[in-house]
Design goal:
This protein has 14 helices and 9 strands. The protein is α/β, with parallel strands linked by helices. Helix 6 links the parallel strand 5 and strand 6. The termini are close together.
Length: 332
Amino acid sequence: MKFGLRLIQYLGNPRQLVELATLAEQAGFDSVWFPHDAFMVNTWALAAATAEHTSRIQIGTVGTNSYLTNPAEIATYVATLDELSQGRAILGLGLHTKEMVEWTGLDAGNYLTHTREAVDIIRRLLHGEVVDYQGEAFSWTDQCYLRFEPHRADLPIYIAAFGRDYLALSGAIGDGSLPMITPPESASYMVPAIIEGALAAGRDPSEVDIAGCAWLSLAEEEAASTEVLRRMISYFGPYFEAPALQTVGLSPADFTPIKNLVAAGRHDDAAATVSDEMLRLAIRGTPRQVIEQIEQVAALGVTHINLGGPLGPDPATAISLMGHEVIPYFRD
């Protein structure tokens, strides 16, 4: 099992996020990831700063999409990051929901084609090709090529996906897949789709690193790990897909009252409305409880646990607990 840490903007200001990334390296995490969400602090700036303050840990993006950032820009961003970090960059391209793209008036309905073509274009650019490309989503001329040599031509590209078809695409074309396993039990629905996509493409499924994106809330005491989750669940829970929620007996309809409260700006009321059942969306509890839940996720086929969310009532303490108690358990 590999360990990734996913740092969302709610954990602090940009400098504090970079500090948490350096703590992750010290704690033994294999990778640190920055979600690329619309209208939130910029992923590329955070990743570049992290590259300058770390020396070993891999640095990834989650949900960089080819609607809000053209593949020409994505390729130059990630190649530059790879040079700055001396070969530690990972591109996590795709979507976990198309709704956030559509806030901007763009139609993201062709996300399967858009992602497939974007990955093809970016790989070809990194390999030094002239990408005179005529596809369904992109139409480029013979002037489309990088004016510099990337540090690595085969920089890993992971696909952030949702729904069986998109998950299958991630298995077919990705070096890795970034499914949102919220709740953790939803890995039982997502992993088979990824494997099926790899097999259909004639690939060995073991070639695909399944980096399940889970929420974490870790503390010395179980009670302390629960309350910090409620605000995060109230904001993001309404976007989760029905088959994933069904694995713990929930449905999108359960989140409708919460979504309405958030839309009205009543965030405290929305958090208070989160039920105890909804807390099952996260990996949570004491180090021993977190170990048990990660073991269950590993048994479902996840090969790289990508932990985000609140992390715990104190993020730095949670990272330290991971480094001292959880990660060593799996290394041993």
